[in-house]
Amino acid sequence: MRLWGVLHSPDVQAVPTSAIAAIKLLMLTGRRLGEVLALEWAWINFNSKMLSLPDTKTGAFKVPLGDETLALLTELKASPAADAVYVIPGRSGSKPLVNLQKPWRKIRDLAALDEVRLHDLRHTYASVAASLGLSLPMIGKLLGHTQAATTARYAHLADDPVKLAANLVGGAFVKMTSQ
Asked: Which of 85-94, 119-128, 136-145, 166-175 has the lowest mean pLDDT?
């Protein structure tokens, strides 16, 4: 993915590391922007690999953390700014970062993703999950959706996995009829 490559390139040196970390967390967790920016260290349980969000759009929610997410959080915890309450601290360190728009525009331009919004990263998370074969109910659980219809709107399938699926189904029919 082009965006992930840009986040790891020397081209983003002018972008604050806290903004880069926030965007990576958005991509790796599928969480909403406000949830990532307000994220407190106290809500993360490294042993159980869980994040306990006390207040989301649908209420309190437990988020399972994958290995890549834990690696990023461990790296952030080891940084000098980790003494702060917030995982993504603002300039003062005593409050969270509140706005990603300026760094996002810079990163988005570097990745040549002109029309992509930060919230689109949540849709991308769902689409990647769908392309990996995860069911809509499972994707809904990952995102914290209470309605399957909401998840269906998020989980846009990329053309390549759909083409692959069409080939698999077509191949199965050919095998059945040639026996």
From this structure: 166-175
Q: What is the pLDDT of residues 103-135, one digit of tens each?
A: 999 999 999 999 999 999 998 898 888 888 888
Place of tokens 């970062």: 97
Are 54 and 99 contained in the same domain? yes
How many domains are contained in the chain? Answer: 2
Residue range(s) defining the domain that contains residue 76: 1-115
Gap between the Cα atoms of 142 and 125, Å rounded: 10
Q: For residue 6, list its beta bridge partners.
A: none
Q: What is the mean pLDDT of the chain?
A: 87
Long-range contact set of residues 38-46: C-beta below 8 Å, sequence gap at least 24: 38/86, 38/96, 39/86, 39/87, 39/88, 39/96, 40/85, 40/86, 40/87, 41/77, 41/82, 41/84, 41/85, 41/86, 41/87, 42/85, 44/73, 44/87, 46/70, 46/73, 46/74
